[in-house]
Write a structure and sequence with these properties.
The complex is a heterodimer of chains A (about 325) and B (about 300). Chain A has 10 helices and 14 strands. Chain A is of the alpha/beta class. Chain A starts with a strand and ends in a 5-residue tail after the last helix. A 4-stranded antiparallel beta sheet of chain B has the order 2-1-3-4. Classes of the chains: A alpha/beta (about 325), B alpha+beta (about 300).
Chain lengths: ~325, ~300
């Protein structure tokens, strides 16, 4: 199985508004794939189509190699989904909810008995499982949302804005959790508008804007393809014009600006060329005190793409 | 990763039933209407005793009390139970957003719909059965031994069928509008319109037959039974209604007097012209009308639920 999620020409319209426009999305198995875009980009609409909550106007969808047409409950057996700002029935207790959902997944009494306490512990709801969900805070409901998404030990976990509504500690915990899930070999499809979150946990990203996929690849490839330049700050023990001139002659250097002991080297590439620079300086008798490579951040790439398409964030 | 079995359809269906049952029995509205029903039942049992004590008289034995009263749930009672049971079964899930995690589990929408329906039926059956038992025990204590108690399950069945008509209407309006308020108010509007328009139609248009085919009490008539009191032959009149709300009473009357006829009077003609129909025909017609409404509205609710998109 190569792709955990595969859509071809996925389109969804609300009247005259095209929320998702011919989206070709490929999420490789075993990756943590970030789905990035500003508010209203079409992320949640896409996820809702994947989960069968919305009907696409055009296009095909495959989840874990199963084609999705209409209400396909079997396709959801191996998928865990946490909606954006999840809401659960207030009349149920946390434990009851997970137990009922577990039965819907066809889990046996023993499986539920083992899995539910483990998940409650993991999301920090241990001790509150017998309280009615109506008494839970938004953050606690968010945690319960994560627990129910992992209940069936899914092969594919879809998280829609999992950090929304969480405090900073909770956000860090979510990121840790995503890393843990990924370690177990599961595919995580994570929608977020928080660039740093995606940058920290994802191996692959798809950037979507106004329903159109602007880029989709590994984070490294997207940096390389889109940014193509970076800046290296080098602090020398003593200033040297010879070193400046020699560095300017390197094929991947576009410019070098000296400022006392500090050299600001503009690079034509986003690749890590620090070994070559270091070698050149050392060869000419220079002594490096510090070296700091400043590549483009995901935010830079994101803004570049969004601006290119003429949209405001 | 765990080996997935997925369980069978029955397991998933029963999970939905449990999900809904827990909601039903914990709903404040349901607890309120049950409390009200038992309070009214208690009052209907106790008030005659209190009044007869106050007047210094003695309450006469009435062996017909339980079989003629049933659970003491009239048209309004059935309507209220129906509204409370299902007004937010589906629309409430959309309003609160809880439909999203529910519909993204490996259960089909048809399973969810049927599970919710069965849970509502079980809750209704339990509530009505409790009321029937309460009224039977109370009636026995106050009015002495009762006749034909073996017919009570039939009365219970009829009351449930009548309530299902209103439940189907509430569920359909709620599912189509995705609004619990519209489900309750819309059905209340229908209930009130029919309650008010029935006598008007009957009196002014001489078209009482229309009411046989509308949900509600229907047209008013009389069953005349030849019986004996202390060896003297007498004709006893029992009131009868032809609508879907009166299935319980008609079932019991049919079981007791299978060959009885029901006589209606055309109120607007002068002199009054009686129209007579066999009770068996009236019962079959009201059952057919009720079934048509139940099936029609439930199908509409199911169809819209199956097709609806979760936008919010």
């Amino acid at each position: 199985m190569k792709h955990a999620i595969e859509t071809v020409g996925l389109t969804k319209r609300y009247g005259s508004l095209t929320a998702v426009n011919k989206l070709d999305l490929k999420v490789e198995h075993g990756t943590v794939h970030g789905f990035l875009g500003p508010n209203g980009a079409g992320k949640t609409t896409t996820i809702k189509i994947l989960m069968g909550l919305l009907r696409p106007d055009e296009g095909t969808i495959k989840i874990l190699d199963r084609e999705i047409r209409g209400d396909t409950p079997e396709a959801r057996l191996k998928v865990g989904y946490m909606p954006e700002l999840p809401r659960f029935p207030k009349h149920l207790k946390g434990w009851e909810l997970l137990d009922i959902y577990g039965k819907m997944y066809g889990m046996t009494t023993q499986q539920r008995g083992e899995q539910i306490p483990k998940l409650l512990e993991m999301v920090g709801l241990k001790g509150r499982e017998k309280d009615l969900i109506g008494k839970y805070s938004k953050g606690m409901q968010q945690r319960l949302g994560i627990a129910q998404a992992l209940l069936n030990e899914p092969e594919l976990v879809i998280l829609d804005e999992p950090s929304l509504g969480l405090d900073p500690v909770g956000m860090v915990e979510v990121r840790e959790l995503v890393r843990e899930i990924a370690k177990e070999g599961r595919t995580v499809f994570l929608s977020s508008h928080l660039l740093f979150e995606v940058e920290q946990v994802c191996t692959h990203i798809t950037i979507i804007h106004k329903g159109v996929a602007l880029a989709s690849d590994t984070i490294q490839n997207i940096y390389s393809k889109l940014s193509g330049s970076s800046t290296l700050h080098v602090e020398l023990a003593t200033p040297s014009d010879i070193i400046v001139e020699a560095l300017k002659k390197l094929s991947f250097v576009s410019d070098v600006t000296p400022d006392g002991n500090m050299l600001t080297i503009e690079l034509k590439t986003n690749d890590d060329v620090r070994p070559q620079i270091s070698q050149e300086i050392t060869k000419l008798g220079g002594v490096i005190v510090s070296m700091n490579l400043k590549g483009q951040t995901l935010e830079d790439v994101f803004m570049q793409l969004i601006t290119k398409t003429g949209g405001e964030k | 990763m765990r080996e997935k079995t997925g369980g069978d359809w029955k397991t998933r269906f029963l999970a939905v039933v449990k999900y809904e049952l827990l909601w039903n029995i914990r709903k404040k509205k349901f607890i309120g209407v049950i409390t009200l029903a038992f309070t009214l039942a208690t009052l209907s049992l106790v008030l005659p005793v209190a009044l007869s004590n106050m007047s210094g008289g003695e309450l006469e034995a009435n062996p017909e009390y339980v079989i003629s009263t049933g659970a003491g749930i009239g048209g309004l009672g059935m309507f209220l139970f129906a509204v409370v049971m299902v007004m937010n079964s589906i629309s409430g899930e959309f309003e609160s957003g809880t439909i999203v995690p529910l519909l993204t589990k490996p259960v089909s929408r048809t399973t969810v719909f049927l599970g919710k329906l069965l849970a509502a039926f079980i809750t209704l059956l339990s509530a009505y059965a409790s009321l029937f038992i309460y009224m039977t025990v109370g009636g026995w204590i106050i009015y002495g031994p009762q006749n034909d108690l073996y017919l009570l399950p039939l009365s219970l069945l009829g009351t449930i069928i009548s309530t299902l008509v209103w439940m189907a209407i509430v569920l359909a309006i709620g599912t189509i509008s995705k609004s619990s308020l519209l489900a309750a108010l819309g059905t209340f509007g229908i209930f009130m319109a029919l309650t008010i328009s029935s006598p008007i139609i009957s009196f002014f248009t001489n078209q009482a037959w229309i009411m046989h085919y509308l949900p509600g009490s229907g047209a008013y008539g009389l069953i005349q039974i030849q019986t004996e009191i202390q060896g003297v032959p007498v004709i006893k009149s029992i009131s009868a209604l032809t609508g879907t709300d009166s299935i319980a009473a008609n079932l019991v009357n049919y079981a007791r007097y299978p060959s009885a006829n029901v006589t209606f009077y055309s109120l607007s003609s002068n002199p009054l012209e009686p129209i007579t129909e066999p009770l068996s025909f009236i019962l079959l017609r009201s059952l057919a009308v009720a079934s048509a409404y139940i099936i029609g509205f439930l199908f509409a609710a199911w169809y819209f639920f199956k097709r609806t998109q979760v936008l919010e």
